[in-house]
Amino acid sequence: MPRWATTDNPAKRHQADRLLAVFALLLIVALPASARIDNSKNPDNPTNVANPWTEDLRNQVGIIEKVNSPVPTGLTLIDEDGEPIKLDSFFEPGRPVVINLGYSRCPSICIAMRNQLTGNLGDTGLALGEDFVVLNISIDPNETPEQSRDIREQVWEELRAKDVEPSEEGWRFLTADQDTITELTDGLGYRYLYIKPQDEYGHPGVLVLADGEGVIRRYLSGTAYSAKTLRLSIVETSDGKVGSLLDKAFVTCFVWDPEANNYAATAKFIMMTGGGVTIVLIVGLILAGFAYEKRKRQLAGEQDKGGTGVPPVRGSRGPAAT
């Protein structure tokens, strides 16, 4: 090793380190291409997996809301036992249908959507299967009824852990062929795509609420909604046929804000509330005025009865004579 590489002088040692780094870099550059390691062709290299979420792909995934449009209820799906079943068989007047699209192998958003739904059901105060129905429909044409049953068992366990009684007729897990899936997703405005290198689907996380007549009424996006929001969405979708009088009054005074994914007070409700407060204040001022005048008259009457209103002092003989 050169003497300059082992010197005890800090300045010279720093210079030696820099020279060694430059020498190593020149050696790597000088190596022939065949002598270098090409990880880009190594299938076991995790960095070789390209990021599928390019800007172009992101633009192909999402929701085009079709509120007040009909659900294509004439489609035939496959139930958990492998039997064909008509989509329109789940629709009854006054009973909303909550449609949750996804697939059983989904590693992220589908699990979060199911967890949010199972976590909120017990707090809605509504009866699954009686007040509303949930349909889990797979967007993977290769999904089997056996996989549907596996997902159903997972959901049942989650519901029981939250003291919610599962309902076989209230929450269904269905599959379909590609043509049926395409027609259904097109009808719901649900835009998704298959990413072949990862064998996964890019898709939005959203609940589609339809009324008992098969008309789309609400899109509930993401996993940040509360049990109260879910309950009111179902109540409003049912046109007041489920829920309490307080729920019906609330959805009358508040309107759904799709951007906030929540309810907001209507302008009419704000005006009514402001007008009500104004009336209460005016009435209060008038009553306070009446009370003041009444008290004033009472004091005046007491003064008239007692002269100056000051009682005479006992034993007083008046002023001394001069």
Could you characterize what this model shows?
- This protein has 322 residues and is an alpha+beta fold.
- The chain is built from eight helices and 13 strands.
- The protein has helices spanning 10-30, 55-58, 109-124, 145-161, 178-188, 227-237, 245-253, 267-305; strands spanning 62-63, 76-78, 84-86, 97-102, 133-138, 171-174, 190-191, 193-195, 200-202, 206-210, 216-221, 254-257, 262-265.
- The strands form five sheets. A five-stranded mixed beta sheet has the order 6-5-4-10-11. Strands 1-7 form a two-stranded antiparallel sheet.
- Strand 2 and strand 3 (84-86) form a beta hairpin.
- Helix 3 (109-124) packs across helix 6.
- Residues 21-50 and 266-276 have low confidence and may be disordered.
Backbone CA Rg: 38 Å
What does the overall shape look like?
A: elongated
The strand count comes to: 13
Helix content: 25-40%
Estimated structural class: alpha+beta
Topology pattern, helix = H, strand = E: HHEEEEHEHEHEEEEEHHEEH
CATH architecture descriptor name of the domain at 58-243:
3-Layer(aba) Sandwich
Give the class-level CATH name of the domain at 58-243.
Alpha Beta
* Strand order, sheet with most strands: 6-5-4-10-11
How does the major sheet shape up?
Answer: 5 strands, mixed
Low-confidence stretches: 21-50, 266-276
| Secondary structure tally, helices | 8
